[in-house]
Design a protein that fits this description.
Layout: E1 9-11, H1 19-28, E2 30-36, E3 41-44, H2 46-51, H3 62-68, H4 71-86, E4 91-99, E5 105-116, E6 122-131, H5 133-156, E7 158-164, E8 169-172, H6 174-180, H7 190-194, H8 199-214, E9 219-228, E10 231-243, E11 249-258, H9 260-274, H10 284-301, E12 305-312, H11 315-322, H12 324-341, E13 347-352, E14 355-360, H13 366-379, E15 384-386, E16 389-391, E17 395-402, H14 409-425, E18 431-433, H15 436-457, E19 461-470, E20 476-487, E21 491-493, H16 495-505, H17 508-529, E22 535-539, H18 550-561, E23 568-573, H19 574-578, H20 582-593, E24 597-603, E25 620-623, H21 625-628, H22 637-651, E26 655-658, H23 664-673, E27 677-678, H24 689-698
């Protein structure tokens, strides 16, 4: 190639009239450039001019041709040309990018055929040009597509590979090699492929393929698990097999996907669907499934299946007082105790809240179920430690037996639930078998619960008032407000029938708020007409304390009725103080600061918690009717207990109220001990508000 700047001549048009050459150039899309070294003349064919972006009349020189080669390729082409001339090569082959006048870029291939003179110098050269732009674009697109495919496979943890049975060769995508942990230049044989399968699974995979080949199966799916130092990996393979005319496998194309994460999610989803995440026990869905399966097995083998349902007594009180985290801890400990006392083949489940259930397969005798229930009750005798405190939680249990009590899982659960409710009604911390009478009781309970929900809205609740009198003067000093349900069909429903139900369902909270409002209205009305203050007592439920709404409820009731706080007395049970809750103490102190009197109802019947009396703002002790009915005829324990309670109240400067006084002898006895206030049938039964007016007028 001449040095740049030498004389360069452009000769237009093809040499002579070689029609065949022109036709070949056109068909093959090849252009030619002929260069005469002696005259430095160029002949550029029309096809070459079109490739280089020039017209037929444009002047073209060697220098101009060289300038079209882009900077990235120019130095390489110069070196290649110079080296070829120095070694008298007959051909030079190079690819380069040509930057055209319109700003476009083409990828060209040039092949030069060189002739040399006698002196060894270059005589002339013919350069064939081929436009590779379209081919290069296709190859680049293919390369980009393959790169994207590799990237997608890497993201999806999805690879592919194939085996050619004719050539006995394998090809793998990069992601497949990464998943299989093999080098990128790996070239395995068939034996190497089989060794990819873990040894403990290799035989069945080989049998899987052998069966597929024998039956000419075209699609095969299987999973293998790789246990390695860094963990377990699950790989899923889908293989597509093609066969030749003789039925022999010809080609195997397969995909491989790492499904370790997917299987982990599936296991987690299965766990969430069928297991309680807190206790790790089966949940209701799995319990019903296992119970149903146990019933099927029992029907085949003529066996009995027992079902236990149990609730934790006082769980809600602990959950509300110590917090939900403490409640969760208690549930986990309860689940652990159940695991310890029940048999390995028994199914223990948490159905929700504090309710647990047990399937007892192959129960030989009903007494066996009772023995197991007794073990569970005994397991709950020891205290639980939650939030750094020891708490005592017992269990109530109901049981039903297949096939004597029920024929299917749902009915068995319903009957066990009826027995559980009966156990609660028997004072809790006990076990009760199902009986047919309990079904009727459970049905009646559901009906009553539904009707009780409507009682408030329908204004069916009312308060009756039992008068309280001062023993020394005989003067009316107040009354205890007692809730009654005036059912439109049943009439007055005894409190013993609906108050426990209201407690269990939580309806006692809105019912208690209603009672406070009604009592405050009555107290304000009567005190406006009485010559001396009358104090109306209202019973509070432990269910009203959690949540921090009780104080506001009391304030609103007082304000709406224009009732003075000193006209209101609130009665709590002794067991409420035993929890040692800061929340209970705080609420009672706020109520006391308002000027409201706090009384302990049924004192002495539950627990001996005398130390709590000095910690809580309590002004009144109420002696339970169970003690009063035994005096003064009983000269034993009851009399000593009454004396002790009176003495305790006097020493703590607390007022004393005796409940259930029915005889004059009892009244005289209490007066002699120094008990100030009494209530009972001797002085008056609970009556409606309108009937209570007679005592108010008499006062």
């Amino acid at each position: 190639m001449p040095a740049l700047g030498q004389r360069e001549v452009l000769t237009a048009g093809p040499p002579g009239s070689d029609v065949c050459l022109r036709a070949a150039q056109h068909l093959m899309e090849v252009g030619f450039v002929r260069w005469d070294a002696g005259s430095d003349a160029l002949h550029v064919s029309p096809e070459a001019r079109a490739m280089l972006g020039h017209g037929l009349d444009d002047e073209m020189t060697v220098s101009h041709l060289m300038s079209l080669i882009g900077a990235p390729d120019a130095a390489r082409v110069r070196d290649l040309w110079s080296g070829a001339l120095a070694q008298r090569h007959a051909t030079v082959d190079a690819e380069f990018a040509a930057f055209l006048r319109d700003g476009s870029v083409r990828r060209l291939r040039g092949v030069a055929l060189l002739s040399y003179g006698a002196d060894g110098g270059l005589a002339h050269g013919i350069i064939g040009l081929q436009d590779l732009s379209a081919q290069h674009a296709v190859l680049q697109a293919l390369s980009d597509s393959e790169a994207r495919l590799e990237e997608i496979q890497e993201i999806a943890q999805f690879g592919c590979w194939e085996w050619d049975y004719t050539r006995r060769q394998a090809r793998f995508s990069a992601e497949t090699l990464r998943m299989l942990r093999r080098p990128m230049d790996w070239t395995p044989g068939m034996r190497d492929l089989m060794e990819l399968v873990p040894e403990d699974q290799r035989n069945w995979v080989a049998e899987l393929y052998a069966k597929a080949f024998a039956e000419k199966v075209e699609t095969l799916r299987y999973e293998v698990r790789h246990v390695e130092d860094d963990g377990t990996r699950d790989l899923h393979t889908v293989a597509r097999i093609s066969y030749d005319a003789h039925g022999h496998p010809k080609r195997l194309l397969a995909t491989v996907q790492d499904i370790t994460e997917l299987k982990t999610y599936r296991r987690q989803l299965h766990s969430l669907s069928f297991f309680d995440p807190l206790t790790e026990l089966p949940n209701r869905a799995l319990f019903v499934d296992r119970l149903s399966q146990a019933l099927i097995d029992a029907s085949w083998h003529h066996q009995q299946v027992g079902t236990l349902l149990l609730d934790l007594d006082r769980f809600k009180d602990i959950n509300d007082s110590l917090g939900h985290s403490a409640g969760d801890d208690l549930l986990k400990q309860a689940a652990q105790r159940l695991r310890q006392v029940l048999r390995e083949y028994d199914t223990i489940a948490r159905l929700g809240g504090d309710e647990f259930a047990v399937v007892l397969p192959d129960v030989r005798h009903a007494t066996d179920m009772g023995s197991i229930a007794s073990k569970v009750i005994s397991a709950f005798k020891a205290p639980f430690t939650v939030s750094g405190q020891e708490v005592f939680v017992t269990a109530s249990i109901g049981g039903a037996l297949y096939p004597s009590d029920a024929q299917d899982a749902n009915q068995l659960l319903q009957h066990a639930d009826a027995a559980l409710y009966h156990a609660k009604g028997q004072g809790r911390n006990n076990f009760q078998f199902y009986s047919s009478d309990l079904t009727a009781q459970a049905s009646a309970r559901l009906t009553m619960e539904s009707e009780l929900h409507k009682a408030l809205a329908r204004d069916e609740l009312e308060l009756h008032y039992q008068p309280k009198f001062d023993l020394a003067s005989g003067r009316l000093v107040g009354a205890e407000a007692l809730m009654r349900w005036n059912h439109p069909e049943r009439g007055l429903v005894p409190p013993v029938q609906f108050i426990p139900l209201a407690e269990d369902t939580g309806l006692i909270v809105p019912m208690g708020a209603w009672a406070l409002r009604a009592a405050c209205v009555a107290a304000a009305d009567w005190n406006r007409r009485s010559s001396h203050p009358l104090k109306i007592a209202v019973n509070l439920s432990a269910r009203q304390f959690p949540g921090g709404e009780l104080v506001n409820t009391v304030r609103e009731a007082l304000s709406a009725a224009h009732c003075l706080p000193e006209w209101l007395e609130l009665e709590i049970t002794e067991s409420l103080l035993l929890d040692g809750r800061d929340e209970v103490r705080s609420v009672l102190e706020e109520l006391s600061q308002l000027g409201i009197t706090i009384a302990i109802d049924d004192f002495g019947t539950g627990y001996s918690a005398l130390s709590y009396l000095t910690r809580f703002p309590v002004q009144i002790l109420k002696i339970d009717r169970a003690f009063i009915k035994e005096v003064p005829s009983d000269r034993g324990n009851a009399e000593q207990l009454v004396k002790a309670i009176v003495s305790l109240g006097q020493s703590l400067n607390m007022a004393l109220v005796a409940e259930g006084v029915e005889t004059q002898e009892q009244a005289d006895y209490l007066s002699g001990l120094g008990c100030e206030v009494v209530q009972g049938f001797l002085f008056g039964k609970p009556v409606s508000r309108s009937s209570f007016e007679q005592w108010v007028h008499a006062a």
